[in-house]
Amino acid sequence: MNEVRAISVFVRAATLGSFRRAAADLGISPQAASHAVMQLEKSLGVRLFHRTTRKLSLTEEGQRLLQGVEPALAMLSSAIDDARRSGEEVAGPLRISAPTALGRTALWPSILEFAALYPDVQIDIRFDDHFTDLVSDRADVGLRGGSPPSEGAIARRLLPIQLIVCASPAYLERYGTPKTVDELDAHRCSGYRRANTGKQAPWEFMVGGEIVYREMAASVCSNDIDAETEAVLAGVAIGQLGSFSAVSHIRAGRLVPLLTQHLTQRESIYVYYRRRTEQPLRVRTFIDFIVARLADNSQFFLTAEELVTSTSRSGRARSRRSAA
């Protein structure tokens, strides 16, 4: 027996004074309504109604049951209405997980724009450089750089991650410009220590159509991408930075891209989430919004034309220095 359904029939019959009216209100047959209440009485071991051909009235036990279940049913009905509205309105809590550097540079401005458009959504964002399990961490949406999550989530690619070797003009003026990957060994280099392993990440390059990795001796090392970027901007070291951190500085002339012929972009930034059919409207709306704002947005990576231009400019600069 479905006790919740039977209790709902009981309450409607008690309120309307008729099994027939209760059945019509609930969209079931009068026989089904009467049978549900009889099963409930059998389960409880008490009679809930005095029944006559003309009148239906509560027994004392029925009256006590009605008084006990009405508040709970009202709360249940309210909760169901709230859940139904959450599927129809862009409102309610939205929990997001994102890596620190990506969140500050690419995501946060878009989130502020989303918050302005949908003021009834309560945004709760956690910047965390570890991969987030959406279920255990109770997040609605995750954003991560790397490879797409393999299990338990749907992932949509947003942006390529280019690993760009770059330095400030002041550094190049003081220490010179490396012409090859091997010449980097003679330079001051920055390092990034991975949050999940604590190990310094190797630099990677495309050489002869293959990706090769180099362990670089770091003059300055940090586990914070923004701190590493600031060190490179300050002229302390050459760095290999993610495009989402470096591109705005390159376009503003604060950083100079180097060795772009060896640039790699094997990883991407992804937004991931559970199945859309399981998501309330506010989550689906945010996913669509962030995809529209970030997917293949060249604000956060160097275009093919820019890479060609930077390679040509670097070659001309080396020729001038050689002639001098």
Automatic annotation (TrEMBL):
Gene3D superfamilies: 3.40.190.290, Winged helix-like DNA-binding domain superfamily/Winged helix DNA-binding domain. Keywords: DNA-binding, Transcription, Transcription regulation. It comes from the Bacteria. Residues 1-59 form the HTH lysR-type domain. Pfam families: HTH_1, LysR_substrate. GO terms for molecular function: DNA binding; DNA-binding transcription factor activity. Belongs to the LysR transcriptional regulatory family. This is Transcriptional regulator, LysR family.
